[in-house]
């Protein structure tokens, strides 16, 4: 079978995240099963037009926010004879494939955008205008997909998609997996220095991911003890990065917050293993891969109780949810698990057990059944 994946970013894109990694892992499984897979996505600075990775052909054309959708139409019709199935990946704006694709379609979605439309990084008032347009028209976008099969990775996402009129029987849950280095670094945060703590944020530096709330939490923690704060991830835009640095400076955290930027996979897990806590104040997620990655090295997560995160954090085992989704609530919850040695040690141990629930070997087999048209309602 010839499978065409339409996605606004590929795994090499500077802003690629958990969603792209997830689709890539599924795509590798489809390729290994004997299918031919092509991934069509947007260009980025320094990218090449085509390349082959892990047997998957990557084709790049168009600007990521809308141009790639237009370019995809042309690519589809030029290659229509060599396409058996189209994977339409939603990331805010989908590829509108029901309007022009007559081949079988599988819609792949990690999360419904919802209020995240209003948290885009564009300057005011453009951000508000675009956000309002997205929020208003998102339900109408889903209307054209009401007869299309969907695949998603969490119960939260399935519920949200169904609220837009997609029948539950058309939505299949295929749980996510997690890729871990071998060997995993040993969790060393607890034995480093119990008088000094490392609290970490991992993810794209974007408003909807909660980086500003994380920094405000850091400021509150900094007044109560000896803390170091690590921020791992690439900013969504240069302008927003300047705002983040200004906020850090304004709260008197220069020298206390280490901005690591985007790091290698090996370095990421090394830093997580040296962190006492990962904070995740994201407003909305499809799942929350970073939580599982932290848990894999025994680092508990303190997270907002928001869509997606409720699927990737098990309260009392892999971490805890804050009582109210505010920087103060985040601060109180971090204090709560760090003030008790016995509770903290228990969370470190049970976090690693939680990770065993997520295996790509199993997830790939399930998604292969979906693309082959079998067991459309796995979850």
TrEMBL record:
Q: Could you tell me which species this protein originates from? A: Candidatus Woesebacteria bacterium GW2011_GWB1_39_10
Superkingdom of the source?
A: Bacteria
Q: Locate the Glycosyl transferase family domain: which residues? A: 191-354
What is this protein's record name? Glycosyl transferase group 1
Can the keyword Repeat be found in this entry's annotation? no
Q: Which PANTHER family match?
A: GLYCOSYLTRANSFERASE WBBK-RELATED
Offer one example of a GO biological process linked to this entry. lipopolysaccharide biosynthetic process
Show the Gene3D superfamilies listed in the entry. Answer: Glycogen Phosphorylase B
- Looking at the UniProt entry, the stretches that span the membrane are 124-145
Going by the UniProt record, its keywords in alphabetical order are:
Membrane, Transferase, Transmembrane, Transmembrane helix
Which Gene Ontology molecular function entries are recorded, alphabetically?
A: glycosyltransferase activity
Q: Which InterPro entries match?
A: Glyco_trans_1 (IPR001296)
